[in-house]
Design brief:
Layout (H helix, E strand, L loop, with lengths): L4 E2 L10 E5 L2 E8 L4 E9 L5 E5 L14 E4 L9 E4 L12 E6 L5 E5 L7 E5 L2 E5 L7 H8 L12 H4 L3
Parallel strand pairs: 1-5
Antiparallel strand pairs: 2-3, 3-4, 4-5, 6-7, 7-8, 8-9, 10-11
């Protein structure tokens, strides 16, 4: 499906992430071919004509990054927040931090830094889940929403590996 877009766009880039937070398609970070960036662009897919808007977020911002991960939390205290983790800086240094992008009722956006002590790095392999915590977990319910958008792990009984972080 081709969606005609008018106006300024995020432009060509690589190493970025795209997440969907109804009604917005959101692009974060990546490299424009000249430099790594930490900008956020939204496209409201429910309103026509379709146009990209660059978000101007208040307060502290995550550092520029490429090849990071992002996901929309769909439950728990971070419900509706887009969470990003890791990636690489402009000079290819590895990042080990987590940030959450949240939208307020007044339609403003801001970033919340969790500095890697809040989220687990979670990798799902079919029926096997491997947890690799960067530091001790403080809120397992928020963490579980981060790793899997399709599996209802919040309702499942914690595994012995997960229990050590509760």
């Amino acid at each position: 499906m081709i969606v005609p877009v008018v106006g300024t766009t995020p432009g060509a880039r690589y190493g970025h992430t795209i997440a969907f937070s109804k009604p917005f398609l959101m692009v974060f970070g990546g490299n424009t071919g000249n430099q790594a960036v930490n900008d956020v662009w939204t496209l409201n897919v429910e309103k026509s004509p379709h146009f990209w808007t660059k978000l101007e977020c208040e307060g502290e911002q995550p550092p520029v990054r490429v090849y990071h991960s992002s996901a929309l939390c769909t439950s728990g205290t971070a419900n509706g927040m887009i969470v990003i983790f890791g990636g690489r800086t402009q000079d290819q240094s590895a990042l080990n931090d987590s940030w959450g992008l949240r939208r307020h009722r007044n339609k403003t956006w801001d970033w919340v830094s969790k500095a890697s002590n809040f989220f687990l790095i979670c990798i799902r392999f079919a029926r096997h889940i491997e947890l690799t915590p960067p530091r001790p977990c403080q809120d397992i319910n928020t963490l579980l929403c981060f790793w899997d958008l399709t599996c209802s792990l919040l309702e499942a009984e914690p595994t012995p590996l997960e229990r050590q972080f509760l």
